[in-house]
Request: fold
Amino acid sequence: MIETASLLMVASGAAHAVVNAVVKSGGDKMSSRALVDGSSALLVLPLAFVASLPSGAWGYLAGSLIVHLVYLVCLVKAFEAADMSAVYPVMRGTAPVISAVAAALWLRDPMTVPVAAGVLLVSLGTMVVAWWNPPSRKALGWALATGASIALYTVIDAKGVRAAPSAFSYFVWVFLALGGCIAVLFALWRGPRFIAEARSQWKPGLFAGALSLVTYGLALWAYRLGDVPRLAALRECSILFAVAIAFFFLKERISPGRALGAGLIAAGSAVLLAL
Reply:
């Protein structure tokens, strides 16, 4: 079961990096995010007719919706302010420590010394990226706020998926609620810009929306099987995929500091995988 949860998280991290690369490569970042979330909601809609209602988890769904909205605004602002290779490691690497502490206190998930070591290596890699050739203060602030909101929704959804009748039930309804509401809000916010973006970017948006179902569906399944401190940190191997995508596909320059930070994150992920 532990091995299954670990593999699910690594796959989730890889898919998550691709989704964010699609958002980063879009012209208008908020419109791109609206396309991604709206597509995921439409794709999952038929499953609502066969999925049971998430009884016992409605409060967690509501909390997750609010936190995800904050998270996505911060994410878009961070991507507007700096390169993906600069802010993505910061936003993803700060989340594991906060998630681990919150999960240990709220969910009573165990925090062993090896898990703590892996989490700290992941976060140390983040600090290296932030310290050596950092993004602007504005971009760094948005990235740190994104990381804090990631940690918060991680713990809320871990609690929610355990309270729901099944992982499938929570998965379907969380995407209907989040995808539908966020897509509508962001589309209205951007107005004509969203229409223009939808005409030119609907195919990448649809692809990323489908991949969003994969990445967070795998994460929710894993949270139901294993402990959040270890799994939340392990998911941040997405940073490695993100740096590779930024270099090879987005043609961003990867500084030595960013490469060293990614290496530390890889080391932390390896420790967590070995447990």
